[in-house]
Automatic annotation (TrEMBL):
Keywords, ordered alphabetically: Hydrolase, Magnesium, Metal-binding, Plasmid
Cited InterPro entries: Inositol_monophosphatase-like (IPR000760), Inositol_monophosphatase_CS (IPR020550)
Statement: the UniProt record of this protein carries the keyword Hydrolase: yes
Transmembrane segments: none
EC number(s) recorded for this UniProt protein: 3.1.3.25
Organism in which the protein naturally occurs: Paracoccus aminophilus JCM 7686
Gene Ontology biological process terms in this record: inositol metabolic process; phosphatidylinositol phosphate biosynthetic process; signal transduction
Identification of the protein by name: Inositol monophosphatase
């Protein structure tokens, strides 16, 4: 079943990419959602509409959780649930940058069983199923095994605020940033960067797909307290994230305030 679901997600991601690229660098209409939620564009909504029609049409008994759809509490009673970000990295998309993605996942209970992250402007596909390998454009990926000294973390500036770290001392890591959180998890999964961190609550649609891809690549994937991530929750949020190869993950957790 996860393999059939993965094929469906891959088809949906490719079609989402075709739609998004029709708007990309074409000055699409955009507006702020308010409440510190950031921008949304007509492209986000067009992609979301297509994905919902395609995916729910194919799996009508699955629940639906998407950044651009009103939350339907019935998803909590579904055995499986789609968790979707139609365009992750909307600011980058509107700026004409390549670093936006489509993040598509399926949860069974609280766990992700199939995931695709597709960057259409870069023609790059990451995917995984529970129990299967993590692949980038068909090739297996794995995280970089390294120590914390000099490691590079994909994160925003707030992650290195001293209050988050034992003794008020942030770790000796370099910081990089990419606009799509889903892509950041995949970049850590493939060892392009050493870790992906967030000390802030993360929306499930941003991290559901990337979390499975990173885990199947061999990374340790937890919330910022070291607990396993749980999905299709009422709040649809995970309390931060730490994603890295197991040795580095352990070093990061040892330095974080509990």
């Amino acid at each position: 079943m996860p393999e059939r679901d993965l094929a469906l997600l891959a088809q949906a991601a490719a079609e989402a990419g075709d739609i998004a690229l029709r708007y990309w660098r074409q000055d699409p209409r955009a507006w702020d959602k308010g409440g510190d939620q950031g921008p949304v564009s007509e492209a986000d909504l067009a992609v979301n509409q297509h994905l919902e029609q395609l995916l729910r049409g194919a799996r009508p008994d699955y629940g639906w959780l998407s950044e651009e759809s009103a939350d339907d509490p019935s998803r909590l009673d579904a055995r499986r649930c789609f968790i979707i970000d139609p365009i992750d990295g909307t600011r980058a998309f509107l700026d004409g940058q390549e670093g936006f993605s489509h993040s598509l996942a399926i949860a069974e209970g609280e766990e992700i069983i199939a995931a695709v992250v597709f960057l259409p402007a870069r023609n790059t596909t990451y995917l995984a199923t529970a129990g299967g390998p993590a692949l980038k454009n068909g090739a297996p990926i794995a995280p970089h095994d390294t120590e914390i000294e000099g490691a590079t973390a994909l994160t925003n500036k707030t992650a290195f605020v001293p209050a988050f770290w034992r003794g008020g001392v942030a770790p000796p890591m370099k910081r990089e940033f990419r606009p799509s959180l889903a892509w950041r998890l995949c970049l850590a999964a493939e060892g392009r960067f050493d870790a992906a961190l967030s000390m802030r609550a993360a929306w499930e649609w941003d991290i559901a797909a990337g979390s499975l891809i990173a885990a199947q690549a061999g990374a340790a994937v937890t919330d910022r307290h070291g607990a396993a991530m749980r999905f299709n929750s009422p709040k649809a949020q995970v309390d931060g994230l730490v994603v890295a190869a197991p040795r580095l993950h352990a070093e990061i957790m040892a330095r974080l305030e509990p």
